[in-house]
Amino acid sequence: MALLLQNLHLHQSELETQNEALRRSQAVLKKSCDRYRLLYELAPVGYLTLTDTGRIVDINLAAAAILNDDRARLLHSHFTHFVAFRDQERWQNHLLHAFRHGDKHSCELSLQRLDGSFCDAHLDLQLTANDDEDLLLQVVLTDVTARKRAEDDLRKLSLAVAQSPVSIVITDRAGCIEYVNPAFSLVSGYSAAEAIGQNPRVLQSGRTPQETYVELWATLVAGNVWRGEFINRRKDGTDYYEAASISPLRQPDGSLTHYVAVKEDITELRYAMAELRVSEDRLRLAKTAAGLGVFDWDLASGKGDWDALMRELHGIGPDEPITYPSFIEGVHPDDRAAAQATMDEAFDPDGSGEYSGEYRVVRRFDSSVRHLAANGQVFFDSGRAARFIGTCRDISAQKQLEREMQGRRSEMQLLINQQVAAHTAAAIAHELNQPLVSVSAYSEAALRMLRNGIKRPDKLAHALEGAMEQAQRAGRTLHELLDFLHKGDAAFELLDVSDVVREALAMVVEGGYSRFRPLLELEPELPPVQANRLQLRKILENLLHNGIEAMCSAGVPMAVITVTVRATPGRDKVQVTVRDSGPGLDPQVMGRIFEPFFTTKSAGIGLGLVISRALVEAHGGQLWADPEGPGGAFHFTLPFAV
Predict the structure, then answer these.
(1) pTM of the shown model
(2) To 5 degrees, how large is the angle CA 142–CA 146–CA 149?
């Protein structure tokens, strides 16, 4: 019995020892589990445990932070809800594969958080079983958004370098080439395999000044960026120009490890610049020889950029700003309205934008008057005139010469008209002198018989018959003379009246009459007329000359002549109207303007309108003056050719 109690006591001691060891082991295990749990909770990567349906049964703090939600809400929610729509199908395939095959594998997904933001995540998947032998999926979740962005940036940078149109070369500190992009091979002719390991000296042509390389290395050694140009040589032996920018490449610790060269082939640009300089020199010489000033207007701001000659022509100082008000202020007061009208026409977006005009300027330097001719082009932006560029030249000497020539032409024409009139009168006088003398003698004899009494009626009858015969002879002689003078008339032809109007205007301008602005109102597609071109043009020139001279005499500041060509209401004739912007016709003069030798001009014989009316009537038309309306106006009609 005592032995049994002793054994029981011994066994109890062993059990107590075992229990103590078990308690110590449990404490150690609990401490280990707490440490593991703490490590699990505070791990820098996310951990999740998922069921086969994707329901979250466990999740650590890092995973909850990646999903940007509270862990308590995440438990028992479905991980699938956080997978971006575009990756839903791929995630379902990975989940099914993990539970079917049980092998460890990985995937990358785009996750969308509850706040709508996205992140890129890497998932390591491992199938395990719990104490109840239920299969669960252990997921290690890593946020790789920053890495993916860095990879994308690196990929973009790599593509940019590879696809760059300029050559990129990277060398080590010793100048040994480590990388070239495709553009380098395209320009130099050396492939990447041929270039890598070489020194950039392989490209030297010997034409680049040695000072360039000295400056290059001095700049790089100082840690600065060098920019300059090389004359290099391709693999095929041809030379080319390169603009280069070479930079030292330093690591984060500041150590210099590489050099990066960015180079561009500027051969064509150099040749183009050389040609441009030659062209500019030629243009400068031509501009100087032609006496052309150049202007460039920014119409949005109203400011102009003029060269030195343009400023000299207008009398504006070299430092004085050019504005539209300052320009228009320098235009002669009598020409401002016409100059503005011509510019408005060029600025019309519905037009061609071409500008051509003449105007006088009063130079500020000496108040002298210069006559200028300008040509230019207006450029439009969104339907508005934006820029106006062109040239201007001094035509004062030309205008003076034209005035002198016009004066001489007028004097010559007057002399010719006087000579024609004198010769015509002499011819008429010569042919009519004898019959008129006979008429006078017979009449004198008859008058003497009547005064002395009629003693011989037969002699009186003879005297009167003689006077009558001589008068009839004079009439026949006059008609024969007129018929003779008309024998040289040119033949008629089918003419477009609008074309003849343009010809007459050109002849008037060429003749020195350029101080007016013509406006044409021409009805299109009118039938032709049967007329003599020279005579019809002469009619128009006479009417244009009269209008211009009337405006000049009246000092009209904006001389305008409007020529209208249209069909009459009956559509059987064409009516031409020449109207000027002068003071109009004096009522006292109106009744006599078609009288031979009547004129209001200081130089003229008064036959222009008489001849013009005779020529119009010879063509079957009529010519008349119009006292109504502004200015002076003349109309004439011609029948359409049948």
Answers:
(1) 0.42
(2) 125
